[in-house]
Amino acid sequence: MLDLGVDRDTDLLAFDREHLWHPYTSMTDPAPVRLVTGAEGVRLHLTDHDGERLEVVDAMSSWWSAVHGYRVPELDAALAEQAGRMAHVMFGGLTHAPAIDLAQRLVSITPEPLQHVFLADSGSVSVEVAIKMALQSQRGRGRPERTRLLTVRGGYHGDTFGCMSTCDPVGGMHSMFTEMLAPQVFAERPPAPGGDVEAWAEGVRQVAEAHADELAGIIVEPRLQGAGGMWVYDDRCLVVLREIADEHGLVLIFDEIATGLGRTGSLFVSSQVTPDILCLGKALTGGYMTLAAVLTTSEVAHAISRSESGVLMHGPTFMGNPLACAVALASLDLLASRGWEQDVARVSGALSAGLSPLAELPGVSDVRVLGAVGVVQLDHPVDVAKATDAALREGVWVRPFRDLIYTMPPYVTGTDDLARICRAVAAAAEVA
Q1: Any binding-site annotation on 168?
Q2: What is the CATH number of the domain that holds 233?
Q3: Do 302 and 204 fall into the same domain?
Q4: Which of 49, 195, 220, 346 has the fewest CB atoms within 10 Å distance of its CB?
Q5: For residue 281, what pLDDT is reported?
C-alpha cells in the first residue's frame, strides 16, 4: 500500500522553510526544523528534514513547560470538559469559575502576602504587567519620578519591549534595540552558591543608593537565571535584594516563569524570600495552553488604585481564558497528587550522576545541576546543528544555545530516559 505520509511531511517542511518564521532564525537562510507528528509521555514523534521518522525523548519539556509530559489523561479531560462549556469569554465586565478557582488556588499555594491575581497571556506579558504595577504603584505613592528598574546582569525576562529593557544589555539578545529601550539600572550578576555574597551585596547597595530617587522596583529571576545563561546563584542574594527594596521603598519583583512550580527544587523560590510581585508561567498549564499569572500584595494593589488612572492599565483579549485556567487547575492538581518533590529529586540525582563526569571533556568549562535542570557550559559557542544531530542520534531532542547544552526534562521522565538524556548531552558536547 502506498504510504503518502512521508510525502505529506516533506511538503509541510518545504512550505515551512519558505514561509514560516521560527524563534531566533533567519527567513532567508533558515536553520533546519523537524516536523512533530505526535507526542506522548516524554516522547516526540518527528519527521527529520531528510524524511526520516524518529521517536525521541524530549529533554526540553517544550521550553520548560510540559512538566507532566504529553497526552496527559487528566489534562486532556480538563480541556475537553471545559471546551464543552465554553472556550473563551471576555474578562472585561465578566468572570467565570475556572478563573476564580485558579486565582483561589494560586493565592493558597504562594506566600501569604500575595493576595491579588492578574491572569496574563504569556510570560512576557506577565513581566510587562509587573513592570506597570511597579510604576503605577509608585505614582499612587506620590513618586511619579520613579520610573526605572534595578536588575542584575545575566538576566532574561522576555522579548517584548519592557521585558527587553531588563535583560542583560551586553550578553543578552536585544542589543540592537538598545536605543529604543527604557534605560534600566544594572548591578553585577549574583555569585554562585558559596560565592562572596557580601562583596556583591555591597556593590548592589551602592548602585541602589546612587539611583534610589529614580527607581520604582527591582526585578530578578530568583535562584536561576534562565535564557540569559543558565546561571545558578546563592539564595542569600535574594535576602539582600529584599532588604534593599525595603530600605528604599522599591517594589521587589520575582520572575518565576521558569523557576516556579518545582523546577529548581522548591515549589516557589518565593517561599524563601517573599517578593511584592510574583510572575508565573510556563509550567502553569503543564505546557498545554499559553497562560501566566501575576500575583501581588494588597499594599501594591492599593497604591495602584491611588494612581491617577485609579485602575491597572492592562487588559488582554484572552485574559483569564477559561480553557487555560481549567487546564492550569488540573496541572496543579497533578503536581500535588504525583509528588513533584520526589520526581524533581529523582531527576536531579540522575542528572548529577550522568552529567558531572562531562566536566572532564575537552571544551567543557562547567557542569551545573539544580533541581530538574542540567547544564553543560562549553568554552566556545555551541555548533547548534552538530549538537542537535548528535543528540538525535542518541534518541533525544535538545535545543542548545550560546555556549550551553542543557536539559530541563519533564518531571515524570523515567530513570532509563534520564540516562539516555545524559548520553545525548555528552554526545552533543563532544561534537559541538
Answers
A1: no
A2: 3.40.640.10
A3: yes
A4: 195
A5: 97
